[in-house]
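Exercise 4. Each item below gives a protein and its sequence. For each, produce the structure-token representation.

Item: Glycosyltransferase family 4 protein (Candidatus Iainarchaeum sp).
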Amino acid sequence: MVGMENKKLRIAVVVHHFDPDSDGVSISAHRLISHLSDRFEVHLIAGAFASDQLDLIKSDFRTEKKGNFFLHSVFVAPDDGSSQYEWGLDNLFFAISSLHRKYSFDLIHAYFLVPTGYVSVLAGKILKIPVLVSVRGSDVARNVFVATRFPWVLWTLQNADFLTFVNPELREIGNVIAPVLDKSAVIPNSGFMEHLPVKPRQRGKKISIGYVGDVHRKKGFVYLIEALSELKRFPFELQVTGRINAEEKKSYEKLLAKTGLSKRIRFFDPVPRKKIHEKYNDCDVLVVPSTREGCPNVVLDGMLFGKLIVSTRIPGVMQVLEDQTEGLLANPRDSESLRMVFEKVFADPKLIDRLGSAAMKRVRSFHPKQETKQYEEIYLRLTKNK
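Answer:
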């Protein structure tokens, strides 16, 4: 084994795809890794899609040092149901096993039940390594309705040594599927950005609404458009920054033209995380109209920038801010409820500064040190006999 003289605990963190510039799970994993103490040696085993990493097709994985951790890139394929996807999962399993033979991991920490949790628990059982699985936003809620995935969800919940959930509701759903209360904990995301150039915005005649993140049905974008279409008598603009499927964009453009909002909305391509502050600084209100979420990083980011958060009343948001005190919440999948919230803001713009300031104070209680401490305690508990 390599480095047996080193007494640090070796942790293998597994994610299906690693893009810390825009992917929520990658951001959360990278934040945790960056704050772990020097008592741990971290190896991030991360999938890389073939279209971006063609050189990986000729090798099983590629290793490089990234700051305080080792990054092992593994060829995988997007979740499109193809044989390539299955081959990618086999590669991920092979990489975990091969890297364990070289580094002798003490613990595997997988993000997401499916597919990484399933693959990691399977590998952990064979290699006799404890496995922690972190259940994220749409993880359980999405896969329980897919017949081919439900067995993976059930088996992973039953066989993981410990599980963390980003909000209480996800834990309750998991416990309905398989009893997990005695081997799980709720750990929400923390609020943190490496550089925080917060610039007070000089509000103009128009209230600027920011939307940051992917644009698709689960994110509730249609409900947002329907709500704003009833408020054209007020001066506002909507800036949308994120990825959007080309076909869906055509549908949204038709909807915008139909509702007369085309000139009120601007679409921007995703920006790197190191530049995302520019988008937060450029808006008065940050809107998150999702139909479901785990514990959205974008909400915590917005709170760090002192923005008024207008979101839907979903567990992942309700655990980090209080309605009417640190933000404003509407019912999910309810454009009329969302319209009423925005009408309240437009009628009383002073809410923007008052609730935004309260949100900035509240988010300080979700510090990365607290999140990291909880994970380190779990790591030590699962490896206490090593």
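Check: The radius of gyration is 22 Å.
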